[in-house]
Amino acid sequence: MALATDDRQYRAATEAVALLDRSERGKLALSGEDAVVFLDSLLSNDIAGVAVGGGVDAALLTHKGRMLAEVRVLRSEAELELDTERPALQALFDALNNFRIGYRAELHKRTLQRGLLSLIGPGVDALLGAQAPPPAEHDHATGTLAGHAVRLIRTDLGVDVLCASEDAEAVTEALVAAGAVAIEQTAAETVRIEHGRPRFGVEIGEDTMPQEAGIHERAVSYSKGCYVGQETVARLYWKGKPNRHLRGLRLEGPAAPGSSLTLAGQEVGSVGSFADSPQLGPIALALLRREAEPGCELEVAGGAGRAVVVELPFSPSA
Known about the structure:
Elements: H1 7-15, E1 18-21, E2 26-31, H2 35-42, E3 55-61, E4 67-75, E5 80-84, H3 89-99, E6 106-109, E7 114-120, H4 124-128, E8 140-145, E9 148-154, E10 158-164, H5 168-177, E11 181-182, H6 185-194, H7 210-213, H8 216-219, H9 230-239, E12 244-251, E13 260-263, E14 266-277, E15 281-289, E16 297-300, E17 305-310
Parallel strand pairs: 1-11
Antiparallel strand pairs: 1-7, 2-5, 2-6, 3-4, 4-5, 7-10, 8-9, 9-10, 12-15, 12-17, 13-14, 13-16, 14-15, 16-17
Helix pairs in contact: 1-6
């Protein structure tokens, strides 16, 4: 069961600046003459179209269009930097390592070498001042914090700070001294859930297609050349309807992740992640069968009562 969200930490993330250490995310890099061409042939989005200083979300798919990883790709002068949820790291590494034969591309492990700190909240740009990156999500630029080299990356909730692992403590201290409030995962997860962003390994996994996860508009290109899983994903986009959709739930009370959800006695999905939001009350994300449309009332297993299905992102009045 998710713990209650700390109100002070939540206020920092929604009204000021919060700081979360996310160094556990899996991190890799590709360099070499063919790095862009190779990655473009493997991932779902248009990697070749990314300019230096920009980035995209993309998915690593099976030949049947199921997700093995959701990947953030950043293009710098020297290389392509990739990060993903830790449960997806091995699949991503294996695919990059196995399929790059014949390409002039070098693969680099960076998980332990790079720290990743997330600044969340409306006060982030004011805290960073002139070093704040451009406003488009994934735009990034180099800078310095506490005398250490960093890369500042625009996110949907603020700015990520990428640095050498040995510098992470000093950078953290500098950001806290400047006004950021260190928070725990629970508070950050509450904000993520409110914004309706799924997380690989939680709401979505290796049985999920990008359209079902609701990420296809930002993570899939339907105009680029071939990549693994393209035929299935494109066919679903142009001719079909996903069997499931990522939805929000407004609940009567706490619900454990994994709790079964039923509609008229039929199971339509399970709770993905739950938060007790100070603003919205008990909410959750869930991958639901398409018959569980917004407005439907579902029964939550385990005596957790009912849940109303809503569109994402959550609205305070929904």
